[in-house]
Every structure is written in C-alpha cells, then in structure tokens.
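Quick one: examine this chain and its backbone structure tokens and tell me how the chain folds. Here goes:
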Amino acid sequence: MKRFESTVSMIRWFDAQGGHLETKGVSPGGKVIDVPLHRHHVTLNIFRVDIGLKYQFGSQWMLESNIPYEAKVQEATVEEIEPVSQAEREAITRNRNNHHRNETYTGLADADIFLGYYTVRLFKDNDLLVGRIGTTIPFGKTEEDPWKLGDAGLEHLHIQFGTGTFNPIIDLRYSLPLYKALGANASIRGKLPFYKNSKTYRGSRELTYTAGVNYRFSDWLSLQAGYLGFYRSHAYWAGEQDINSGLRFSMASLGASIVTPYNIPLSVTLMLPLSQETLYDDTSALLGGVYEERDAFEFGPLVSLTILYSF
C-alpha cells in the first residue's frame, strides 16, 4: 500500500467586486478632511497554489498538511458623485491611495495540519467516513489595525494573508454509492479562532458545508456536481467588530476527474456564485440618506485544477 499522497491545487478566483461610498479626503499635509460624496470601486483577482502532503499510518489513521501561496491583484478607481474641485479631487485620490491601491500582494497564507481517521461500511457497503481535527499554522502576513490608521490619514491594508493565531479546525466528510456508478458525498468543516493576535486582531469563525453527486463513466473519467455553502462571522480589532467582516455565500460546482496515462489523477472544477449577503446591519450604513456599501467583496467565478500523486 502506498502511504504517501501529494497534491498540487491551483485556484483562480475572478473579479471579486467591492467598494464603498466616501466623504473623506486627505490634505497635502496628511490631515483627514471632508470632501464631496464619491465612491471607491475595488476589484480583486486571486491566484492561489496549495501544496498538500498526506501520510497514512496504521490501517485507518493519517496525517495531513497543506501550505498555500497566494497572489492578490487589487485595482481601485473613484466614481465622482457630487461635483468636486481639482484640489478636492487630489484629496480624494490621496485618501483612496491610503485605503485601496493598484497593487499586487503575494505571500504564504496560513497553513493547515490535521490528524485524520477513516472508517468504511459505517451505514452500508462501500461508504466512507473521514474525520479530521487540526489547526491552522500562522504563516500568513498580518496587518496593523486598518481603522486606526485610516482615521489618522495613514496608508493601510485591509487584505491579510493570515490571522496570526493557531485556529482549531474540525472536518467531516462522508461518501456513499447510490446506484451502480452514481455516488453522493457531503462534508462540513469549521474553523474556530478563539484569541487575538499581537496586533489585536481576532479572525472570523468559519463554517463550510458541501453536498454533491459524482458519476464514474469509466476507470479513467468521472464527473461531479455539487453545492457549497459558506458562513463567516464577524472579525474583531481590539474587541471592536470589523464592519467589513461577516458574510454568507453559496456556490454551485461542476467538475471532471481523469486518470492520466501515468496514473496521476487530475481534476478540474468550475464554481459559480449563487448568492451572497454580508452580516452587517443596513441601518448603520446610511450616509446622508443613502445606503453606504462596505468593503466586503462580492465574489465572482472560480476555477481550480488539482493534481494528485501517490507514492
């Protein structure tokens, strides 16, 4: 039996859209000033590579680890809503550059490590249940409190690559045959941050749940379809709620898996957004009688490619 399994997964997330209304600018001397109403538009494209390794020991136990690397490409523009002078336009641009810059951010994200156990024939022949417990490892770069920096008219960044803390993870996956070559699967995963990092940030609690079906056409080709739901609670800075955090979204997925001539499975998946809503209270988002958007991004489609090798 081959005890090691390595995976390389590449993910491309397209055109996440975000932004907010704004009435602040920054003077040439760095002071925050009032300016006419305008809107920041922000687009984020994400490319991520995950490298995983699994080691099976005993008959039903396994150790798993995953190290991700991400590139996040941010583009920001300003939409003028009320008339502005040239001096006000320059103040608006300075403030936008403090909040959102046309930049590419790269680096490691938080890694995962798990201890897993699996069992078969739990409810019927050929079903499979896998349970894992583990933690994140804080490899990802973190930022200082962006709200304090923004209020002071200083450059800051809302995008983080990690939480700066070890966060417990619980993961359950179940699959079973339905009829001949048709099977079904479901999973649930929770991440539970419980303390703040050295910069006073405590990350969001997360819950991911999936359900799907797969059909095997032959020994080398199978197709999958599924549903993914995701919940992320509010995050906190120094005990204060981060108003840009907290959301629910769902996606539909379609995928195919093939076994190459070198006996290396390859999977391609397309995920399309179905719904998304933020958790903040709309009544606190009024700005002069107009609802003010937050910086939370509305996600676009996602494409992933995964290669697996056992040895």
Notes: Residues 139 and 189 are 21 Å apart (CA to CA). Residues 4-310 form a domain with the Porin fold (CATH 2.40.160.40).
